[in-house]
Amino acid sequence: MASSSSSSHFEDFLPLMANKLGGDGLIGELCNGFNLLVDSEKGVITFDSLKKNSALLGLQDLSDDDLRCMLREGDFDGDGALNQMEFCVLMFRLSPELMEESQFLFDEALLQEFKHYC
């Protein structure tokens, strides 16, 4: 099996989308992204549906290995595919800036709860 020497570049637009659309809007857009990639018969994103539809999201340059790696990274239940929840979680996990912001907001909320009980 030949290995590809090219590397994939991923530009993280999720934080920009979150700021512009708000929480509900961002979730709606993630659902739209899921619907673009989903295998309509199976209701999940499979390797074949990801490969077939990835160009719609600008991912046409990803290798088969990259696509398989994405599926493995997000596949929490081990079925070899991504359901809608797994896809959304994966998109958040692939966005370091959004994860940092989410962690900050979580920490702030937790701190407020502790102050409430003290």
Task: Please tell me about this protein's structure.
There is one protein chain. The chain is mainly alpha-helical and 118 residues long. It contains 5 helices and no strands. It is elongated and about 50 Å long. The termini are far apart.
- The tally of strands reads 0
Q: What proportion strand?
A: under 5%
Order of helices and strands: HHHHH
Number of helices: 5
Q: Name the overall outline.
A: elongated
Outline:
The protein is an all-alpha fold and 118 residues long. The chain has helices spanning 14-37, 47-53, 64-74, 84-93, 96-117. The radius of gyration is 17 Å and the shape is elongated.
List keywords for this structure.
single chain; 118 residues; mainly alpha; 5 helices; disordered N terminus
Write the layout of secondary structure elements.
Elements: H1 14-37, H2 47-53, H3 64-74, H4 84-93, H5 96-117
